[in-house]
Amino acid sequence: MMMFGRKAGYEIKSGSAPKRRNPIKVMAIFVFCLMGFFVLLSKFKDGPFSYDLFTTLDFKPWKNDVDLDDIIKQNMITGDYFTNQVEIAEDKLLGGLLPAGLDEKSCMSRYQSVLYRKKQKQQPSSYLVSRLREYEALHKRCGPFTESYNRTLEYLNSDGQQNYNSTGCKYVILTAIHGLGNRMLSLASAFLYALLTNRVLLVDPVTKFSYLFCEPFPEVSWFLPSNFPIMGKFKSFNWKSPENLRKKKSHATWTSSPLPPCLYLHLEHDYDNDEKQFFCGDDQKFLENVPWLIIKSNIYFIPSLFTIPPFQEEISNLFPDLGTVFHFLGRYLFHPTNFVWWVVTEYYNTNLARADEKIGIQIRLLNKYPNPFKRVLDQILDCVGTENLLPQINETKSSFVVQSEKLNKTKAVLITSLNSKYFEAIKTMYWNRSTATGEVIQIYQPSHEEYERNRNEMQNIKAWAEMYLLSLTDKLVTSGWSTFGYVAQSLGGLKPWILYLYEDYKAPGMSCQRAVSMEPCMHAPPYFDCTRKQYTGNTVKLNPHIQHCEDKLWGIKFIDRDL
């Protein structure tokens, strides 16, 4: 029997005399190990406290002003990269929500996302599943460059002078504006409107969503072809445009012939009382036979679609629990491209995957106030402390004692903010200090852009990656009014703690409020009486399944059916 042991540079074997090691060899090994240690230290000097989503990932460096196509080609992120790295998901179709048979390698996130989420409690209704399959068939028959699309386009090119021989195809074109969160909420709203009215949804390619999202429908694209006749006018469309529904309807009768081939619908936050009549049954009746509708929007307008009598029953059938509307629409429509998915999964696996619990904190200052940092930081710390999301610092024990007692419990905190100050402050708070519960706290911030640039596609990629990462957390704190936070909470099926707005935070213990549902808030509801044709204000009695938002009292949102 051999016994092995080490002492002072000697190797001792049973039955033999001690044999001295070569001191030069020992020194060389020591120097090599020391160099390796400093390399690792330089790369991970912040330990479990780090930020910058992209410099921490192993790919060729790039900046905000380089060509995205070149970046994707340089890094060669294709479906083959993922195929050997993850197991096959059992419920990859999300209860039938997603269509089967699509090319998995072209969009790995579609069927792999379930591997990164907890098993969803809610399941899509069988009616929603069947209507989505019907829509996909309609999109395949009427989508861009199909025979039906080309025939309907001819009617548009003739300005309605040719006879409109119905192909059974009608369209809603969305041009979504402002921040990425606003555009995603508008896109989901337009898709549901298309589903309710048996129209095909086409997306203005100016949005450049192709860098962010996979094509959601089988075989035929959802992007409007670049040669669409009046695409050049989209940017200038507003409530004064001659294509506006109100302009057309003012000199048209319900039986006007020929019908206008195209109408513009202004559904931005600044729409006036005339535009708000879109949410009245009479306007929907007028729109039924107009082949082309163009919507410009920056709001989530689904709650007001529910107030239109012809749509109310259908929406209820599609979503028996109205608190899941955007959750299912978002999980159906928004799948990160392979490049974005690579960024998300690499960051998640490197920093978050091994934590026992993941806490997301989304910080967004929408109004400019002098020196808000200290006040907002106090509010965040008060919220996470009062709601027991993060433990207090233990001032009496050393970190070494606490860590030795409870090394196996970790909380990873994912902070998203344009500013790095909050990350630095919370990192400093937990750095080398123990917690009252003995938990080990790890702080991460993927990026800090300082300024929002909606038209910068690189920043949009980072924003989408961060939204998705937040949606993978177990508990979430969001900022009031933030559409960025709305998307994250709904995709993740999370009821967040919402930080009150800067001016509404009055005292400790009153820093945040738990949301009643995961649904986004509609910031600019119409509050319009369709019978009297007048504005009502926010005193109107709401549907029992709709209430005012926690963070915007004149906004409205769906609540869960069981409340």
TrEMBL record:
InterPro entries: XG_FTase
Organism: Cinchona calisaya
Bilayer topology annotation: Single-pass type II membrane protein
Family the entry assigns: Belongs to the glycosyltransferase 37 family.
PANTHER family documented for this protein: FUCOSYLTRANSFERASE 2-RELATED (PTHR31889), FUCOSYLTRANSFERASE 3 (PTHR31889:SF2)
One CC-aspect GO term: Golgi cisterna membrane
Annotated protein name in UniProt: Fucosyltransferase
UniProt GO MF annotations: glycosyltransferase activity
